[in-house]
Amino acid sequence: MKILNSIRKDGLDVYHLKIEDKKQLKNDHIELTEFEKKTNVPISVYEDKIKIISIKKMLHRILIYASMEVKQILEQHGIFGKYNISFGGAYNEEMKNEIEEYVIKNGLSKMKRKTRIKADDKIIGTIEFYDTIITKGFYYSRQGLLRGNITKKKNQNILLNGKISGNLSDVEDIKKYLDLDYPEYLYGEKGPQQLLDYYKKNFIDSFEFGRSFLMDY
After folding, report:
1. Which of 114, 144, 153, 189 has a CB 3.0–4.6 Å from the CB of 16, allowing a cystine?
2. Quick count: other Cβ atoms within 10 Å of Cβ 159?
3. For residue 192, what are the CA distances in angstroms to 84, 180, 207?
4. What region does 12 belong to: left with phi over 0, alpha with psi -120 to 50, or beta?
5. CB-CB contact of 59 with 130 (8 Å)
């Protein structure tokens, strides 16, 4: 079903990230509150890396859905809990006026706005509001990325289970997932070995305890 396909993600990407003193790319940062809540090692391991960072953060989200059918599907997947408010129906002038009234009433007018509307099929839309804040956290660089269903076994168990891993053992555990997603018949005779070489170089050899961590998306 097209609607389901638009909100389901078939797999997760695993990133090897490394804490840096200065900002690398625009969005390469994580707040201390999120990091501390999700990490599977004591926060004291990273204590000397904590710093004051300036970040552009999404502070408010509006969800727009086209019909009751879409709403029911979104409710089944727990989507509504990720948004501050939702509006249902056609994205027309009447709805736009309602949204603008809400924006003004809630003091969102001065924030930067990002609007994503799928007007072609009217499945779903979002409006996000961003502002710059000062907080505690980390800047990081991207050391490696394994794409697709790397964190999923055939029985659908998740390797990281939404946690931020600071353990080398979790990095080593990724190896047993690789062959599930990069079989030889799809990537050629050298494909699996190339993937293993990349994995060893960018995940195993470059992992630093107290500075490296894994995240999945």
Report:
1. 144
2. 19
3. 44, 10, 21
4. beta
5. yes
CA–CA distance, 202 with 185 (Å, rounded to integer):
24
The helix/strand count (H/E) of the chain reads as 8, 7
CB 177 within 8 A of CB 159: yes
Domain edges within the chain? 9-53+137-216, 56-133
Q: Which helix (H) or strand (E) holds 103?
A: helix 93-105
Structure tokens at 200: 């060893």
Residue 216: exposure state from Cβ atoms within 10 A (0-12, 13-18, ≥19): buried
Looking at residue 119, its pLDDT comes to: 61
| Cβ contact 39:166 at 8 Å | yes
Q: What DSSP character marks residue 190? A: T
Q: Point out the residues of the chain with pLDDT beneath 50.
A: 1-10, 154-155
**3-class secondary structure per residue, 116-169:** EECCCCCCEEEEEEEEEEEEEEEEEEEEEEECCECCECCCCCECCCCCEECCHH
List, for residues 190-209, the tens digit of each pLDDT value.
777 778 888 899 999 999 99
Rounded Cα distance between 2 and 12, Å, is: 20
**163/214 Cα distance (integer angstroms):** 8
